[in-house]
Amino acid sequence: MAAVVVTLAVGFAAGAAWAIPVIQRDLVGKAADRIAAVGVSGVIVSFSGQDATVTCTSPLRDLVAVKAAVLDIKGVRSVGFSSGCSTATSTPTDNSTAGTGPGANSVPDSAITITPVVKLAADNKVTISGRVDTAAQSDALVAAAITSFGSTNVTVALSTNVQAGNQSDAIVDRFVSLIEVFAGRLKSGAAGIEGGKLYIKGIANDSTSLSALTIAAKNAGATKGDIVLSLDSVAIISAVKVTVTFADNEMTLTGTVGTQSQKVSLVTAADDAVSRRNVTESVTLVDEPTAEADADQMVIEDLEALIRAMPANLLSGEVSYDGTILRSTGVYLDEASKLVFESVAKGVGVTPTLTSRPDGGQSEAASMQQQLNDYVAANPFLFTSNTPKLLPGSETLLDRVAEIAKEFTGTSIEVQGHTDNEGDAIRNLNLSQARADVIVFELVKRGIPPEQLFARGYGEARPKVPNDTAANRAINRRVEFVVTAG
User: Fold this and answer.
1) Tell me: the pLDDT tens digits for 424-435?
2) Is the pLDDT confidence value at 18 over 50?
């Protein structure tokens, strides 16, 4: 092979003007012979270097057979087809059964997707079938299987699409990474790509192998619902059975986990989401975990992601794992919040069941305004003197105000800042605006859609009582809310 390469290099260097046409004429002649051998006529093959282009006088019924025949020629790198070669009825069939008879498939080329499947039998025999887009993808899958199980154990019945690009390279690369961990871990089963998604199902050799396969599948992009693994034909029962509910800015965690670190992870996620004082947990450890801790840890990570996403996007909600299925339900704040939560949920393989907040009319707006003002009158926001900085302890007040404000959609909330009449009027006006801005900022942090809030400072212009005593001036230094519908 080295001598051939050198000869070609010298030939090109010494006389490319004659060498290229000679080589291409040779390839054209061989291509014509190969195509005729598969019973196809009415085509013209041309070459640009090692890349062939097939031009057709009429549509071909079996593009795959033609492509395979040309690619079989030594030195050919790729085969493309002119637009006249294919129609909605010109569909590739599997290379192993290529033909032009009445049984040919009539699905349009554009509808074909990659469907590679690697099946492992109990006798360690592997079959690779289905379809990929490129020869390089096929080579990578076959090489991974041979590396894991040996060439004598691998049977290949894999075909390639026609005129496909490399858009599917990424998922095939991830599939290859999954196949590479099969040896010594998967007793029997199958893995593949279907509908653009990775899946794996089968029986693992032991619990350690089960964990390794599960982690590899998830790292490759398979969702929990597409990972179906068991030990000795008996499905693994997870040690994790957890329910987390969220309402009124409080979280409650119940259920069981396999390790103390898993419990800590869940509680920490809840603490981060709503603060420790609003978390109630009664999560216990099982006496004897029924699954490998690593496999359950993946469930814990999925639960953590959903827990952290609830407060900012849901008025209320619940996430749970019953040992088999991860679920999520809730009431979302607005369309943007819905999309964010759905994205997080789908990232861990869950399609959440979500409903919208009820619409608030005039009566609901009036009720919300009354609740807000009654609450802050009894529990006023306190600021450092002459600054917009809230004093410690305001978090609980903000949490409750946020929960009241979240109850209905379709309402507009004006956050009003007021001061007493001591000091400069302009400075008081600016201070009241800054304090209202701080309240709005804190409410947005707690999940109130920013478009629902408006901050306005009135300074000393609207006293609630005469500014004639220290007690009255304290009353006038206040935050109030005006809620309107629509």
Assistant:
1) 999 999 999 999
2) no
Read off the pLDDT of residues 284-338 as tens digits, 9 standing for 90 and up: 988 665 545 556 777 888 899 999 999 888 889 999 998 878 899 999 988 888 9
Distance CA 244, CA 1 (A): 65
Three-state DSSP string of the chain? CHHHHHHHHHHHHHHHHHHHHHHHHHHHHHHHHHHHHCCCCCEEEEEECCEEEEEECCCCCCHHHHHHHHHCCCCCCEEEECHHHCCCCCCCCCHHHCCCCCCCCCCCHHHCCCCCEEEECCCCCEEEEEEECCHHHHHHHHHHHHHHHCHHHEEEEEEECCCCCCCCHHHHHHHHHHHCCCCCCEEEEEEEEECCEEEEEEEECCHHHHHHHHHHHHHHCCCHHHEEEEECCEECCCCCEEEEEEECCEEEEEEEECCHHHHHHHHHHHHHHHCHHHEEEEEEECCCCCCCHHHHHHHHHHHHHHHHHHHHHEEEEEEEECCCCEEEEEEECCHHHHHHHHHHHHHCCCCCEEEECCECCHHHHHHHHHHHHHHHHHCCCCECCCCCCECCCHHHHHHHHHHHHCCCECEEEEEEEECCCCCCHHHHHHHHHHHHHHHHHHHHHCCCCHHHEEEEEEECCCCCCCCCCHHHHHHHCEEEEEEEEC
Give the CA distances from residue 479 to residues 125, 145, 198, 462, 482, in Å, rounded to whole numbers and listed in that order.
74, 68, 54, 12, 10
> CA nearest 133: which of 99, 108, 110?
110
Give the contacts of 98 (CB within 8 A, at least 6 positions apart).
38, 62, 64, 65, 68
Given this model, what pLDDT does residue 110 score? 34
Rounded to the nearest 10 degrees, the angle between the axes of helix 2-37 and helix 63-71 is 150
pLDDT in tens, 205-246: 887 888 888 888 888 888 877 888 877 655 456 788 999 999
Distance CA 8, CA 13 (A): 8
Which domains does the chain show, CATH number per domain? 2-93 (3.30.300), 112-235 (3.40.1520.20), 241-356 (3.40.1520.20), 362-485 (3.30.1330.60)
Strands 126-132 and 117-120, sheet pairing: antiparallel
